[in-house]
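Task: sequence design from structure.
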């Protein structure tokens, strides 16, 4: 994965971390106990983010930059094709929010809230097991089991990357997304009946959340995975 092997990758020198990247879609990556964990191998206890939904929308609909554009289209009552024709993408929506456009503010506040909820679910599920907080897009998907080999493991870092990370970088001063993200995550952690008190008392979102500067991390990661598979097959 790019965050593990790329220069400046944020999976380096840390044992337990989660990555969420948002571009045209969303991408997850996970490192636990010092090892990269393939999410294809966690499907019985941890889902991929794009499989879950909230308030009728998938997390991909709410956290990808394309999804942010679509959410703004709904709130502003502007056809998505008109936004595309006028070059109004996630970055321009942030600029509108920074200029006090109410629909843009509401859109990006929802982005922050959703991201906070996702990060909390990751923290809780890894440490305590699945708590049935969200529904799945595929109603026939197998239910997640609450037991797994990593119970008790506390995530040390939440990494936000790709264009979603770039958007958060541009929001560092305006804090339209950040405020909702940090408030939601902190509130859910403080109210959790499952997480250990020691973690709840010492948790600070500004120390947990970091922005990745590796825009091509998923591509690099996919290339590394493909190479490793090739080597395995060659040595078979």
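Answer:
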């Amino acid at each position: 994965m790019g965050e593990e092997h790329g220069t400046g990758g944020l999976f380096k020198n840390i044992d337990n971390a989660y990555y969420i990247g948002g571009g045209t879609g969303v991408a997850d990556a996970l490192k636990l106990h010092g090892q990269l964990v393939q999410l294809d191998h966690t499907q019985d206890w941890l889902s991929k983010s794009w499989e879950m939904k909230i308030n009728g929308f998938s997390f991909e609909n709410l956290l990808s930059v394309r999804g942010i554009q679509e959410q703004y289209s709904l709130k502003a009552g502007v056809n998505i094709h008109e936004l595309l024709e006028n070059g109004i993408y996630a970055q321009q929506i942030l600029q509108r929010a920074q200029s006090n456009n109410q629909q843009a503010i509401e859109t990006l506040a929802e982005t922050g809230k959703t991201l906070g909820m996702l990060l909390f679910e990751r923290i809780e599920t890894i440490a305590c097991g699945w708590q049935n907080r969200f529904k799945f897009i595929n109603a026939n998907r197998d239910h997640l089991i609450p037991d797994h080999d990593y119970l008790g493991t506390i995530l040390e870092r939440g990494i936000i990357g790709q264009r979603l990370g770039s958007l958060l970088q541009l929001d560092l001063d305006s804090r339209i997304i950040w405020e909702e993200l940090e408030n939601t995550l902190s509130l859910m952690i403080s109210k959790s009946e499952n997480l250990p008190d020691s973690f709840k008392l010492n948790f600070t979102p500004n120390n947990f959340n970091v922005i990745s500067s590796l825009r091509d991390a998923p591509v690099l990661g996919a290339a590394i995975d493909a190479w490793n598979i090739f080597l395995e097959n060659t040595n078979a």
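Residues 46-64+114-220 form one domain.
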